[in-house]
Amino acid sequence: MNAEIIAVGSEMLAGDRLDTNSLYLTAELNKLGVEVVFKCVVGDDRDRLAAQVRESLGRSPILILSGGLGPTEDDVTRDAVAKALGRTLHFDEGIAEWLKQRFAAAKRTMAEVNKRQAYVIEGAQILANHRGTAPGQWVEEAGAVAVLLPGPPHELKAMFQSECLPRLEKLVPKQAIRALFWRVAGMGESDLDQLIAPVYKKYTNPVTTILAAAGDIQIHLRARCATEAEADSLLAEVAAPIAELLGDRIYSRNGDPLEVVVGELLHAAGATVSVAESATGGMLGERFTTAPGSSRYFLGGFITYSDAIKAKLLGVSPETLAEHGAVSRETAIAMAEGARRLTGSTYALSITGAAGPEPGTDTVPKGTMYIGLADAEGSLALHRQFLGDRQYARGFAVQTALDVLRRRLTGRS
Amino acid sequence: MNAEIIAVGSEMLAGDRLDTNSLYLTAELNKLGVEVVFKCVVGDDRDRLAAQVRESLGRSPILILSGGLGPTEDDVTRDAVAKALGRTLHFDEGIAEWLKQRFAAAKRTMAEVNKRQAYVIEGAQILANHRGTAPGQWVEEAGAVAVLLPGPPHELKAMFQSECLPRLEKLVPKQAIRALFWRVAGMGESDLDQLIAPVYKKYTNPVTTILAAAGDIQIHLRARCATEAEADSLLAEVAAPIAELLGDRIYSRNGDPLEVVVGELLHAAGATVSVAESATGGMLGERFTTAPGSSRYFLGGFITYSDAIKAKLLGVSPETLAEHGAVSRETAIAMAEGARRLTGSTYALSITGAAGPEPGTDTVPKGTMYIGLADAEGSLALHRQFLGDRQYARGFAVQTALDVLRRRLTGRS
Questions:
Q1: Could you count the other beta carbons within 10 Å of the beta carbon of residue B142?
Q2: CB contact B357 to A (< 8 Å)
Q3: DSSP A254
Q4: A101 touching B, CB under 8 A?
């Protein structure tokens, strides 16, 4: 079953404000098995809003509007929905009396303008507002429903829980929803899609969504069925072959980011890690320490941006730098070994590269990165060539370094 | 003149993700005097998107779409706009070749699926993408224009600046718009607003917008008049008293971020800097090295997360750590002095603190941060108590460290 959401208010069309009510409403609707297929922000314009209400109700059986129920001329939602449905508004004495008493209880006089909030769309059910002065409305029309909710989030949430949910539960066919959320490291988006599309394209249920950031891809699968058992089995049918194709490139099956996954592996192994960063300038250390509790396994490390500092702090030999250059497999390994020796950590990771925007050289073009790992068993370094700008290449290198350590900790490299 | 914005992507219809590109686009359009009257999110559904494109182009002369230009089946924007306008798509050999070369330059093979990105709507102008693989498109139809931009924010912003703005400026009726963009360090948002609101609240033109992040506040003033002279004089009338109230807390008058301002001061002075980071774990180094060309003044430094590593790498004395603790003025100073001594930098900055989420202790509550600075004249350390979560406290501490160095470099501390 589909739903749409309209946020009403010109202030949400400015450059510094977003409609966040729709996030709450979407999460609640999804729990019922209802999918949000469209959402929009309309300014305080009665005709434009009425047109959108007609459009949305014409294609989706549930429409939720937030905002525009206040007492001023700018508050156009009641008028616009009535217009869209070709219905009249009537003055509700009960609401007017309730409003008057509410103001009296607060020892305030009600402004005449507040009476606007007592107008109800012909045939609508009134949704009580226990947190403010704007009642909501529930209007059914030709198998669809428009729900008018107040804009202030605490009023909207309270009204949704006590007044809307019970009504929606009666409306929506019972459905079971089961979802998977995996994260994958070490692949580009198009490579991953090419690999797994032949599996998931065969299904419209479960729905598959793929989101990509530098070196980090999220795969969401969501199955909707009549029973939980059916949903589970449908999900497994798609998830199993995807899992087989991706193998150990899946680093998280609960949504945890890579620094948390690696941190837990380190902690479980009673191991520690240190870093030696050139091109990323501290970004890898920053990632490790984003996770609360990282002091259990992260010791620290070195930011060695210049060649002289690589030699002085980490003991990278001038010969290595002269012969192979600062951006090389040999320097990456010397950096990791230096960090491990000086901190006494179980593992050490290093990153050296040319992030750009300078174009680099023939042997070291922009986007070249070497990622080093040292431990008691020895050292290794990976070479990667990244596309994209400076921040993208740096972010992807950090993600790769974390993944190299994950593989080492799980016995895969 | 009115505009509408459509964000394309099913992932932005989930309960945990908002379209933020529209904020950037709105701010840019507003600068041109263009008002955004409607915005929406449409999932990866070709027919629904085509219907919305027809609707929007029917009532507003500017329509901007973001997202859905990637290489996968899910990327429906090209198809949907072509369908809405009743036009065909043609395969552009030039784009295909450019894509191939882009992959070749990175020594990677282009996946077949990437060729989808070479399809262009009949009659469309191609908008170059210097940050990614999805070209944009500019399609005019019956006095209106549809602009197709890529979804990743850094690609969208770069393309908007270089490809869209010049075209939009020709389209939009001339208004004289003069703007100021200042950045302020070292103040909270409410303190700043309390200080300058009595000035700017008196004016609706220029429009004043205040945007706040941790330790970094942006002040935008925009005057719109018939002539440039009028706009200039109106702007000066408001800007002068605000500048007087804020004084040297304004660190940038051209929008440059603090690490760029400090980097230019260091470079101009022929000076270098190193860092010693505990609670921020590399975040300060990462900030310095975000600026291209930072190798001219940034040498590197130390991430010393544990006490033992503070002693071992930086030479912080065990007595200092035992007597005053790792989160103390004394340790901050010893860390900065150690980094300076070991790297030979002109200046050294240090950060040590308790970022949370652990509540901390009575003497060192969560959010306590010490920021140290060492140079040839001696050392100092500042104490700050930040509110907010772990990332907020860390970000504010980094901003404070950069500002301490700015003040030292400009003779203010």
A1: 9
A2: yes
A3: S
A4: no
Q: Is A58 helix (H, G, I), strand (E, B) or coil?
A: helix
Instruction: Out of A26, A282, A387, name the one closest to residue B286 (CB).
Output: A282
Model confidence at B15: pLDDT above 90: no
ipTM: 0.73
Separation of alpha carbons A290 and A50, rounded Å:
47
**A281 in B contact zone (CB under 8 Å):** yes
- Cβ(A56)–Cβ(A6) under 8 Å? yes
Which residues from chain B sit within 8 angstroms of residue A298, using beta carbons?
281, 305
Torsion of CA B78, B79, B85, B89, to 10 degrees: 80
pLDDT of residue B135 exceeding 90: yes
Indicate if the pLDDT at residue A72 is higher than 80: no
pLDDT one-digit tens code per residue, A320-329 = 999 999 999 9
pLDDT winner (highest mean) among B204-213, B284-293, B355-364: B284-293
What are residue B289's phi and psi, to 5 degrees?
A: -85, 0
pLDDT tens-digit series, residues B226-266: 888 999 999 999 999 999 999 999 999 988 999 999 999 99
Domains of chain B plus CATH, in order, are 2-171 (3.40.980.10), 176-252 (3.30.70.2860), 258-409 (3.90.950.20)
Tell me if A285 and B282 make a contact (CB, 8 A cut-off). Answer: yes
What sign has the CA pseudo-torsion B340, B344, B347, B349? negative
Task: State whether A299 and B309 contact (CB < 8 Å).
Answer: yes
H helix or E strand, kind and range, residue B353:
strand B347-353
